[in-house]
Write a structure and sequence with these properties.
With 131 residues, this protein is of the alpha+beta class. 22% of the residues lie in helices and 49% in strands.
């Protein structure tokens, strides 16, 4: 499995970040998505702007502290965790993504791809907080 962790601080209350990240019905702040379909309260599908779908199943949701889910699409399967912590300047988030790619050749590129995706997610989240 390949693992990527990103940590960032935001000058706002933990509840603000939590509400944005965990509200799967309001995805418009995400620049990489065209839609999210809710399957039930613990499962949802994300669609990229190109129509590529990834399936998610929430495995932990401790308000203002921890959010975790499993994910799978045609190229990979894995898990994601988000840890939310108060800090001097507001809130620190730590997001970790671990994936196993289905095509061994993709192992050469997946870590860079995950870093790029996490960076985009943090950038989009920063923009959403300031709206």
């Amino acid at each position: 499995m390949k693992r990527v962790t990103v940590t960032a601080q935001f000058p706002c209350d933990c509840k603000v970040l939590w509400d944005i990240v965990t509200d799967n019905k309001s995805y418009e702040w995400r620049s990489d998505l065209s839609k999210i379909e809710m399957i039930d309260e613990n499962r949802f599908d994300e669609y990229t702007k190109d129509g590529f779908v990834t399936h998610f199943r929430i495995t932990a949701k401790e308000p203002y502290r921890e959010y975790r889910f499993d994910m799978e699409n045609q190229n990979m399967r894995g898990c994601w965790s988000g840890i939310f912590e108060s800090c001097d300047r507001g809130t620190q988030i730590t997001f970790t993504e671990e994936v196993l790619v289905k095509n061994p050749l993709m192992n050469l590129f997946v870590k860079g791809y995950l870093k790029k995706q996490q960076t985009k997610y943090i950038s989009d989240l920063r923009a959403a907080v300031t709206r």
